[in-house]
Write a structure and sequence with these properties.
Blueprint: H1 9-20, H2 26-33, H3 37-49, E1 68-76, H4 84-94, E2 98-103, E3 109-115, H5 118-132, E4 137-146, E5 154-156
Antiparallel strand pairs: 1-3, 1-4, 2-3, 4-5
Helix pairs in contact: 1-2, 1-3, 2-3
């Protein structure tokens, strides 16, 4: 049986710190969660004693206030293939809520990130492309996973008006 309970704000901040940096010391956790060392150590130990952290198979981002996980598969133009590691590092540095960003064996980029809503993702994506350009991007597939108990995967065709679509030339 899985025990489900609501975390208070301090516990959410500590859990957020743990999921971002698994090897964080209690002092680092206290600083990141904006609590004193003793409170951080007590709440940290309580979370592990109650198995809260180990039951978060995919850390329970819904408890941290995130509503959707965005899964992107980015196709890179051939001329930009040597830059893929640089592109992935840009994405990871720009999006603090990026869970995973890596190159696949076929030269594509796979990105998983969590967001408060799809609009927040849309705006962050626009800022990323305005800051770093899109000349490397050949195509993009986006899936949105609601972070709730049902765990349904919804295929999202378009979150924005000027998205990349397979456009056939006219004539």
């Amino acid at each position: 049986m899985v025990k489900i309970y609501k975390l208070d704000d301090k516990e959410k901040r500590i859990l957020d710190c743990i999921t971002r940096n698994v090897n964080a010391t209690p002092k680092e956790i206290a600083k990141a969660a904006d609590v004193d060392d003793q409170t951080a150590r007590r709440l940290y130990n309580r979370l592990f004693a109650e198995n809260a952290c180990s039951q978060l198979i995919l850390p329970n981002y819904a408890l941290l206030g995130y509503k959707v996980m965005i899964i992107q598969r980015l196709s890179v133009k051939n001329k930009s293939l040597p830059d893929v590691p640089f592109i992935t590092s840009k994405i990871e540095s720009e999006w603090s809520n990026c869970i995973d960003c890596h190159e696949t064996f076929d030269g594509k980029i796979f990105v998983r990130s969590v967001w408060k809503n799809a609009e927040e993702f849309k705006n962050a994506r626009i800022r990323l492309h305005q800051k770093h350009g899109m000349d490397w991007l050949e195509g993009e597939e986006v899936d949105m996973v609601p972070l709730n108990e049902q765990r349904n995967i919804l295929k999202v065709r378009s979150l924005w008006k000027d998205d990349l679509e397979d456009k056939k030339p006219e004539g």
